[in-house]
Amino acid sequence: MTEIKKTYCRICPGFCAVDVTIEDGRAVDVRGDRNDPVTRGYTCIKGVQNTDLLYGQGRFRQSMRRDASGALAPVELDDALDQIAARLKAIVDQHGPRAVGIFLGTQAWFSAVNAPAATAFAAALDTPCLFGTMTIDQSAKWVASERIGVFNGGPQRFDQADVWMLIGTNPLVSVMGGPSTSGFGHTNPTKTLRDARVRGMKLIVIDPRRTETALQADLFLQPRPGEDAALLAGIVHVVLREKWYDQAFCDRHVDGIAQLRAALAPFTPEAAARRADVNADDIVAAARIFAQQGRRGMAGSGTGPNMGPHSNIAEHLVQCLNVLCGRYLREGDEVPNPGVLQPFVARHADVSPPKRSWLTGPRSRRLGLGRIFGQMMSAELADEILLEGSGQIKALICLGGNPAVALPDQAKAIAALGALELLVTIDPRLSATAKLADYVIAPTLAFERHDHTGFLEAMFQQPYARYATPVVAAPAGSQLIDDWKFFWEIARRMGGPMQLGNLVCSAAPAPSTEEVLAAIALGSRVPLDEVRAQPAGAIFDAGKIFVQPPRPEWTDKLELAAADVLDEIAAVAATLEQASAPGLLLTVRRVREFVNSGLTDAAKSRARIPDNPAFLHPDDFAQLGLTDGEKVAVVSATGRVTAIARCDPTLRRGMVSVTHCWGAGSDDEHQIPESTSRLVASDTGYQSINGMPIMTAIPVEVLRLG
């Protein structure tokens, strides 16, 4: 029997609606749903491989435990849960709750229940040691938000913009966007950008590589890697000098403009252009197009500036552009997406002040860094494991992530993971981290479980939502568990007071995933039953919502020039006339075939990209005497990775571009793939607030190995 069932892909935040062909209970084909009002038929090579993820040879159908010989062997699920709970309890009893850490990887965020369950488990255990991938590559966004404050009307949306600026991001490939990152309307990115261009939107792209997105730009600036802060300072300098900012908005809602103007005085277009190696006229043009000619639209960044030198001030300056130009919804503006499965929250045209949450609460033991948005800094995770003494992490649970290849300074990360008393990873495949784990818990996959879009619905430009039911059953004879339920079952065995929505963990059997999804949607703007009644997803019209007037008692302003911000600007200004370091600079890049380390063993993806290339400009290629396809070593002061040399004329000269989080080579006894994080130093050059190391624009050599 053949039938087509509708669901949505959860490999990345694109959440593409798909039609799944089912033959005799087995998914055999995945295609984009052309009738979906938001994703409009789009899916990528990752999405069509959902069938391979379900039935591929490498999938775990039963949990695994490391035996006395050191090998992973099958274990009954209940036995694994009992043993893990007992070992965690013993660790907590001896060392305290801080001895248990939780790492939330990229895949943890794409199910409505998983990240909330892990967070609830950490709260029940009373451990502050919650880590995530946001603090690996984009924590500068959190720092900037908490130093500036938040305008409560909300950001302007991409589908209503007449201008947009993208810095160090390539959403046509990454399918990343939404208000928490670049703001790009990332669902069906190609059509979304095409529609924007048809309506006349101007696009400015800043990137060392002429990316697929940059090819669509009206203005493209191609700076030297690592000079985002100087370049952005030059753009903001011009906006302030020419008074192209929104004077009325700034008078009412912004503090620190005079101090910011003074701090940015050295960053004339000419000085910034020399530092970034771009044309000074292009800096002025970028400021003019964005601030003077455009009236609606924002500046947004990706991992590029957030992983490079001076990342915190680079991101701060991105957000300064939005603040100065008043690129927010104002009183009386319609809210494009007021939400569906989240409770209604009124928008007001006022300011929530800077939080600086890192100044209070638990701190890391090496650098004394506080938490942001409830998370500790992932750059500190390895040291939290390795540094002996009170508060040392002895056990780590990984959900949807692969810290063995993602954490900075890969050699240290591997040593730290190997030093744990207990490492548990919830993973359907033998990832690099699973190779080191004491237990690998085999989970259900997206097409086998219930889910809904409520947790990340703010990513959508419109009030879109959908509920997914399983389209296939778990493989016959398998012992799988929904990721969230692992935390519930461990809490139940440990006697912890874990709570999800209105559901409280007890000795009774765990609730169903359907019950938990309903619990976390209590009080939603649109009842969950209405969303479930639309199995193909829909845009829900629950009435227009408008930004309300400012509340009289809310008198705070957005802060652009706090003392630490001015210090960081001064540090960048001190580099303006310094000579740039000779040699090559490593930059990282995304590709369509993988999501970080995800799908790096998928057949179709690896058929396209069998090895992780090191791309260089043709002139650098010739200067080094390289031949296309030869094996090379990319070497930094910290480590080295092997790669295959490839020519790429989209690069500027002087850079090496490599995809992060995976590699073909390995000199490790566990055969952990070499990642570009092996080239990253975690103990020098880091940012003061978040410990963010320099993970791109790293000085390297390329050595021939043939």
Automatic annotation (TrEMBL):
From which domain of life does this come?
Bacteria
Q: Which residues form the 4Fe-4S Mo/W bis-MGD-type domain?
A: 2-58
GO molecular function, one example? iron-sulfur cluster binding
Q: Which UniProt keywords apply?
A: Iron, Iron-sulfur, Metal-binding
Stored CDD domains: MopB_CT (cd02775)
The record ties this protein, via Gene3D superfamilies, to: 2.40.40.20, 3.40.50.740, ADC-like domains (2.20.25.90), Dimethylsulfoxide Reductase, domain 2 (3.40.228.10)
Under the heading SMART domains, the entry gives: Molybdop_Fe4S4
Instruction: Report the sequence similarity comment from the record.
Output: Belongs to the prokaryotic molybdopterin-containing oxidoreductase family.
Instruction: Tell me what this protein is called.
Output: 4Fe-4S Mo/W bis-MGD-type domain-containing protein
- Species of origin reads Massilia cavernae
